Amino acid sequence: MRTANVRSIVVWTLVALIGATGWSVLALSRGEDVSAAWMVAAALGTYAIAYRFYAKFIAQKVLRVDGTRATPAERLDNGIDFHPTDRRVLLGHHFAAIAGAGPLVGPVLAAQMGYLPGTIWIIAGVVFAGAVQDMVVLFFSTRRDGRSLGQMAREEIGPFGGAAALIAAFAIMIILLGVLALVIVNALAASPWGTFSIGMTIPIALFMGFYLRVLRPGRIAEVSLIGVGLLLLALVAGRWVAESSWADTFTLAPATLVVWLVAYGFIASILPVWMLLAPRDYLSTFMKIGTIALLALGVVIALPTLRMDAVTDFARHGNGPVFAGSLFPFVFITIACGALSGFHALISSGTTPKMIQKETQVRMIGYGSMLMESSVAIMALLAASIIDPGLYFAMNAPAGVIGTTVQNASQVVGGWGYQISPDALARAAQRVEESSLLSRTGGAPTLAVGVSEIFSKVTGGSLRAFWYHFAIMFEALFILTALDAGTRVGRFMLQDMLGNVIRPFKNVSWKPGLAITSAIVCALWGYFLWVGVHEPLGGINQLFPIFGISNQLLAAVALAVCTTLLVKSGRLKWAWITGIPLAWDATVTLTASWQKVFSGDPRVGFFKQRQVFQDAIDSGKVLPPAKTMDDMHTVVTNSTVDGVLTAVLAVLIIVVIADAARVCVRHVRRPALSTLSESPYVESKLTAPAGLFPTRTEKEEERDAATPTSV
Predict the structure, then answer these.
(1) Which one-letter DSSP state was computed for residue 69?
(2) Residue 224 to residues 229, 280, 357, Cα–Cα distance (Å)
(3) Which of 65, 191, 227, 373 is the most buried (most CB within 10 A)?
(4) SS3 at position 460
(5) Contact between 182 and 532 (Cβ < 8 Å)
(6) How far is CA 124 from the centre of its chain?
């Protein structure tokens, strides 16, 4: 025992030293070249320490997880929404569901401010806020039969604050789903390789679901090997298809993709979780984590240099071409997923608590999955920071700013202090077999260029174009897994809301209600997506500017609910664990909301932007991004809608926080007045390990449970 303790101390001391060295190099460099490997070291060292010590402390001392208590998956198992799912499959599902566009796109955009602010927020944010939120929400939802975040707010905070939370959460969810779907459409619209490969994951997942349910129950290793083999075959075949006569068949128009996405979202949200959702997400996790792990390995082998400044002038002045606004608060809004994301709370109170086998697994699935997503965000920021800064800004600045030619772009970017020649811009596009890389905004192309830069140094420059297009398809797969789980969670949220009025909807697996609510959710985000695809300034494009703020406002709701539940459940002394992140998130998001509504800078303030465009209309002028006078009127409408929605959402969140504070104060003063909606204790009959790898004791328990008892 003593040997094990000494060995453990040595190992964790080394891990801490590696992480601390990485942080020291990043923070203390003053103009010298810095290897990207130090960013990887700082991240992985911090993640390991946080999971081993902080997450374990919260799970055991604060939440007091109980392995003898039956979860909703065990007590309410119906094979549709409630189903005890192997922890490895559920880890894959949960990670795939939370890891959408955010950890890939946000860090790429935030690289405008330099690599250091984003690195600090991604790592510190996930350790103390994002992963804590995900784990605590998952725990409390598991204790409440898998209730949605909004419904927990209604039951624990009260009807007034709860109603505000329900409305805000559902509205934000529709916005998030519409934005995720738009990114998928943009990624797949001209990619037969991506469309074929991603489409093939559906029948592969169905096969895996039936394999585990009917053919070989419990054979996770077998189905994993089969699934990964088929996935790799689909990826390779996708390129064959793209280069064959079948390419036109899988080259779908944006409008066609919208129809397919809505149909897929509806079907995925009503089928039993074991049939499609869980195995598909588990399958995609192999590709996601595998790619990120290979990227980290590639960084260690190739040792690329961080070419972006640690902190740029745009961070100091807030006049960046990628997005306008100062470092505080907008870096913390731009980087959401990977550090702190309200969307995750919807998954942690949606599908996952209805599938988890043991409370003791919340640490691995809730905290661990978020650390995995944060590693994705770090790799995305790293990929954006190792390419030529001139190329980065040429790719991410809008055409209205840098023009449409490499000569003009080179001149404009040079004026910002980042020199890159027209030939270098043209050559960068040729190397990845693109006609142009100018103004390829949205983050995905920049990430793909960075990925191709890293992998090509390991595998050879001849494969640069392959890795670029692989990364584009990889991102689309990332996002689709968040869309199907998100649609199902949206259905749960709507069922909870309607269940307060129409009792049968309380049963989330009631088939008529299941179909009705799924259709409504798909119709809502599908409508915004359809309009957005057909009108460049309409539909979901209209709501895109409030995507980041709405997501972080939702995190404030989740943290307010968590803090309230910690107080009401007798954990007042530990309320700071979610209370401090709540205070930080509320400060950041409400400051950002105030600036987006009232700022006098038209690039930041919605109403100021409305005024500028309205004045231009009155003068008969057309301003970019508008191309016609009709577009000008659309911009005025969009700015008005975005400003009003931002203000309304901010007010709703203030109501939730204020009502939560009232409930907490009342409980401290008069605990007898408080009630908890926690489900009664039922002893569990299941045996399952708490972590990815079972301990010796857990192996013995599983062996004893599998041994038939004699009568």
Answers:
(1) B
(2) 8, 11, 20
(3) 373
(4) coil
(5) yes
(6) 17
Nearest to 523 by CA among 168, 280, 177, 101: 177
Helices (H) and strands (E) in the chain, counts: 32, 0
pTM of the model: 0.91
- Tell me the longest C-alpha to C-alpha distance in the chain: 92
> Which pLDDT belongs to residue 708?
61
- Inter-CA distances, 491 with 83, 574, 575, 707, Å: 17, 33, 31, 40
Return the amino acid letter for 267: I
CA atoms within 13 A on the CB side of 502: 12
Contacts of 520 (CB under 8 A, 6+ apart): 494
Residue 536: phi, psi to the nearest 5?
Answer: -55, -25
Chain centroid to CA 311:
25
541-594, pLDDT tens digit by residue?
A: 777 788 889 899 999 999 999 999 999 999 999 999 999 999 999 999 999 999
Whether the bond into 625 is cis, omega within 30 of 0: yes
Q: How far apart are CA 192 and CA 331, in angstroms?
A: 35
Contact 521, 488 (CB under 8 A): no
Nearest to 268 by CA among 472, 80, 132, 416: 80
Could you read off the pLDDT of 73-86 as tens digits, one per residue?
999 999 889 999 99
**Mean pLDDT value of segment 401-429:** 93
Q: How far apart are CA 660 and CA 155, in angstroms?
A: 12
HSE-up (13 A, CA, CB side) for residue 157: 31
Q: Do residues 40 and 22 make contact, with C-beta atoms less than 8 angstroms apart? A: yes
pLDDT at 4: 58
Give the HSE-up count for residue 711: Cα atoms under 13 Å, Cβ half-sphere: 0
For residue 447, what are its two tokens? 């990430």
pLDDT (tens digit per residue) in 85-123 = 999 889 988 998 888 777 888 899 999 999 999 999 999
- Rg (C-alpha) for the chain, rounded Å, is 25
Q: Which residues pair with 69 in a beta bridge?
A: 683
Three-state DSSP state, 507? coil
Measure CA 380 to chain center.
13
Distance from C-alpha of 195 to C-alpha of 480, rounded to nearest angstrom: 11
Of the candidates 71, 242, 705, 181, which has an alpha carbon nearest to the alpha carbon of residue 483? 181
Bridge partners of 683, per DSSP, are: 69
- 105, 336 in Cβ contact below 8 A? no
438-468 exposure pattern, b = at least 16 Cβ within 10 A, e = fewer: bbbbbbbbbbbbbbbbbbbbeeeeeebbbbb
